[in-house]
Amino acid sequence: MNTDKNVGRPLSRLEGREKVTGSARYAAEHPLEGVLHGYVVSSPITKGKIVEIDTLEAMAIPGVVDILSHLNRPKLAWFDLQYTDMDAPPGTVFKPLYDENILYNGQPIALVVARDFETARYASTRIVFRYHQEPHQTCLEKHLDKARAPKKGLATALKPPPPPPTGDFENAFENAAVKVSSEYRHGTEHHNPIELFATTTLFQGDGKLTIYDKTQGTINNQLFIANVFGLHYKDVRVLAPFVGGAFGSGLRPQYQLFLCVMAALHLKSNVRVVLDRKQMFSFSHRPPAVQQMRFATDINGRLIALGHSTFAETSNFEDYTEPTSNWSHKLYPAPNTLFEQKVVPLDVYTPMDMRAPGGSTALHAIECTMDELAYKLNIDPLELRLLNYSDVDPSAGKPYTSKALRECYLKAAAKFGWDKRSAEPRSMQRGNKLVGYGMATGIWDAFQFPSRVQIMINSEGKMIVDNATTDIGTGTLTVMTQIAADELGLEMADVEFRYGDSKKPFSMFQGGSAITSSTGVAIVIAARSMRKKLLKKAAEMDGSPFRKAKEEEVVFSSGHIHLKNDPTINISLKDIVAFNKGAAIRTTKMGRPHMLKLRKYSLATHSASFVEVEVDRDLGTITLTRAVTAVAAGKIINPKTAKSQILGSMVWGISKALHEESIMDPHLGKYINANLGEYHIPVHADIGELDVIFADEKDNLINELGTKGVGEIGLVGMPAAISNAIYHATGKRIYRLPVHFDELI
Amino acid sequence: METDPQNLQPQPVETHLITLKINGQNHSISIRPWVSLLDCLRDHLNLTGTKKGCDHGQCGACTVICGGKRILSCLSLAVMKDGAEITTVEGIATESSLHPLQQAFIDHDAFQCGYCTPGQLCSALGLLSEGRASSREEVKELMSGNLCRCGANVGIIDAIMQVKDGGSYE
Fold this sequence. Notes:
The complex is a heterodimer.
Chain A: H1 16-21, E1 36-42, E2 48-54, H2 56-60, E3 64-69, E4 101-102, E5 108-114, H3 117-124, E6 128-133, H4 169-174, E7 178-186, E8 198-203, E9 209-213, H5 218-229, E10 236-239, H6 255-267, E11 271-274, E12 289-297, E13 303-315, H7 328-331, E14 336-346, H8 359-377, H9 381-387, E15 392-393, E16 398-399, H10 405-416, E17 429-430, E18 433-445, E19 451-457, E20 463-466, H11 476-487, E21 495-498, H12 515-540, E22 554-557, E23 560-563, E24 566-572, H13 573-579, E25 585-591, H14 595-598, E26 604-616, E27 622-632, H15 639-658, E28 664-665, E29 670-671, E30 689-694, H16 713-716, H17 718-730, E31 736-737
Parallel strand pairs in A: 1-11, 7-31, 9-10, 13-14, 20-21, 27-30
Antiparallel strand pairs in A: 1-5, 2-4, 2-6, 3-5, 7-12, 8-9, 8-11, 12-13, 15-16, 17-18, 18-26, 19-20, 19-25, 22-23, 23-24, 26-27, 28-29
Chain B: E1 16-22, E2 25-31, H1 37-44, E3 63-66, E4 69-72, E5 85-87, H2 100-107, H3 117-130, H4 136-142, H5 153-166
Helix pairs in contact in B: 2-5
């Protein structure tokens, strides 16, 4: 880094003005002349075949342009491989409108295209479908006997299976002095960003498509569309300048994109397809899971056995896994371990990564089990964690590139006032409310993906930085601008970061809390090359004082190159470009993780959450009154947007612990609360006082920036901390999420 | 009565001429009665600042101010509002400056993805002019019809409290 003028400052979001004035345009909002509206028809049955579709009445409605189904759809790619995407789990990808088979409830079975939205929606109700229904299986708990190891595939690289057993787990657990054996159940959750999934396709007529899509990966979706519809990838441009939340649901191309493009190509028109809220429950979710925990310690509280088995739902066509059983041994050392991770294929759509996939489910079970052990041992729960603290990753036998978890524990405990806790359950109260304090640990991956960045210095001496990543609300635009400005010693206003466009240089999808480390590092690498180019160009100028200057002898600041030992000798970037005959100076470079160096280390972010709940003594109603989360995630580029990421994920933790769940009716095979009135997410009144602390974690190993990502870690520890606080308040240990008041009466 | 679909002769739905005064500007629109005020704003008037999150009155993203009161534009048909005076998020700022509440939202980082933001802003302006909420707890309760999935709740309430206590929302 050249200066640190902007990095580390709590700057407000650069796109704030667009977002508060309503001028930010999301996927469904790009005005197009004569755009046709598509409305998706969803299968009301769960499994079987479509035997007849009668569209006669619907087609006769004035304004209806076409109705596409498997019977009349245009020719599609033949091979499953052509439908795959960067985030596809092993298996056979679902292909919308491919044939008569119904694989899950809510599956898209037709697209009505009309001149206006209301006509399309109305016409969708006038199509007559006849089905041949077959028996279905959608209940995880009823079909645990179907559990098997997941298939392996490309996705396994980011989601490794649990490590092999160590020691003699069964024997050690059997004979342990103190042990806990319990089973945790988690319901299905749906991402439910407030923006509905939508695609607007501009049919340009020259074989080219411009697509505004709700996605976390512009290039992922560009390649998907090119492959499926046999187009050259250069003829497909996917734009996502604003994304109204996604939380993982935009990691794969969703069916509205496919259907919208299909209709646009078929009708040679501009088409828009927007899903409705019910349909937002039809394409991805966090899978329900059963976790069996067996942890044991010696008499002093040292862990001697860790056993964690997970049985999680997947679809009958793809093997999705969110790794859960891997995590306990990354935190705690134990000589005897046994981990397994199995999937149970059912007649549902394939689950998908949802904010902190695996981690948030796993750490609930792990950290509640630790709490239970602490009570059995009569040790303070925080003390038990510190007693079993490890600076290395015991599961891999490698040191962490950095791990400031101890600082997280101590700082958060102090801020929270953990020392005021009396250990006994039901021992603290406030009026008619039982008060509970609970704590838990969080751990999450610190990923970095390859990313490519172009930097350009234009004739005004301004810096333009291009990358295909999205900004799904994480603050990416602001953070990248901060990094870029400091790399060339420019003001924020002199840097433009252009993103959300598949035409820009390569970025993976925006997931896994990885974009700051991926695109951010690519900016650092590209800026390094740009500084060289600029200095070289400056040295070529007539009478240049930089003729013999080496890189380490100059500094870039205030839009100039200065000699370090005589800052009065300088030249502006603008003059350098002018010398280049006014032609912008460009460089494109790739940033990638240092695989060889990092092979010797484990990489993770950590957190500690402390929460207080109040439980009504008579009614059992639970109120989260306050929470403190301390996070160790390396360097924080922007403390303001990073804090918002942690606050937001703490709210997700509250939601997972106390509110959200999609209820599957196993007889109908469908979610019966597929709307925001009955799928509860926290409202303002549900949120108590929330505090965020960032540990001072310097990491010189992980990447050029020292960053680890903050998008998910704030969620991981919260559900267990809340559950543990509920136990402390009430003396009742609830082994399922979300916890509801009726279980506490 | 049974109808033979073969003989159905669907008729085009009639349009109605209505006038809406939106953000101080009069709009005359010929519109079908089945169009919600929300879709009227977004699809017919290109005022896409007002957001559709559920179309069922459950999320609050479509909140606008109609006749001085905050309403859910997805639960109103446009024809029901003939002659009404409506303020959307596009009409909150003046030409030269943001409304203090908009600035407070930016300062408190009261949004992430920004999609619920227009509804939060209109709802908060409605709340402030109602004069019902005096405490932070009351503001939280009376803003609870507006969901935020990014979890920007703390920033949203902080921003509203700052403007409410500063009294600069008139």
